[in-house]
Specification:
Distance between the termini: 35 Å
Strand order of the largest sheet: 3-2-1-4-5-6-7
CATH class: Alpha Beta
Bound molecules: NADP nicotinamide-adenine-dinucleotide phosphate
CATH topology: Rossmann fold
Largest sheet: 7 strands, parallel
Number of helices: 8
CATH superfamily: NAD(P)-binding Rossmann-like Domain
Number of domains: 1
Length: 249
Amino acid sequence: MRFAGSRVVVLGGNSGIGLACAQAFAREGGAVRLTGRDRATIEAAASGIPGARGSSVDISDLAAMERFYEEIAAADERIDVLVVNAGVGGFALIEELSHEYWDQVHAINLRGCVFAMQKAVRLMGDGGAIVVTGSIGGHAFVPGNVTYGAAKAGLALAMRQFAGEYVSRGIRVNMVSPGPVETPLLHRNPRMSAEAVDVLREQMIAAVPMKRMGRPEEVAAAVLFLASREASFITAANLFVDGGALEIG
Ligand SMILES: NC(=O)c1ccc[n+]([C@@H]2O[C@H](COP(=O)([O-])OP(=O)(O)OC[C@H]3O[C@@H](n4cnc5c(N)ncnc54)[C@H](OP(=O)(O)O)[C@@H]3O)[C@@H](O)[C@H]2O)c1
């Protein structure tokens, strides 16, 4: 029960890694608020987690995020743990890259996540923890990954900046960077057929020394560790949860 009495906000908590985080925090006593955009999965997620509340908030809509935090403040709640996990995937080779695609991904994966953290720290006190979901894609060459990789690399830099600028307030900021994990993300690329997704999945497994995809629960375990008091001397760290893909793949 490492999070008994803690108020935990999971941005992007209705699916995949974020859902596993929300469930795990609640199992350990946390009072969870989770967000996403899709109302049906938000309701299903929140109703399956004791005490959890769900809100449909697009992280790229800065005014909507402001309203979300105002609601938390109006309820006289603080935030003890913020998990910044919302993100979209997708691939586009440089030769087929459009401004629209770049802006769409970055508005969520970089700009949205940064301003979500900026607004949340006002509601956090001494001992607060932020864990951001990065990706090994922000650190390695992957064909078609310039947009997503640049956003996640930018997010890693932002994570370090937040860690430095808020250390004096007792807020720790860390990142968990997964390798390939079995979640709906892989199937959300409208430009890829089901067969192409299967091929990509096999390629990703081949590139992982452990020769398998990760499970959302394995990423959640790392998120909970970094958010917990067990990690009280850890800030600005980037923990790779990737079966060895980045370092020994
Ligand atoms: N799966 C992997 O292999 C992998 C590897 C490395 C990093 N990651 C990162 O892990 C994080 C979670 O991904 P996942 O694999 O668990 O995929 P997922 O199941 O598709 O989950 C993505 C989450 O982000 C939310 N989200 C997306 N756009 C949003 C927006 N504009 N506003 C609010 N919420 C939004 C989704 O909710 P809605 O759909 O309802 O908006 C969902 O909760 C992402 O940041 C992803 O980049 C995943």
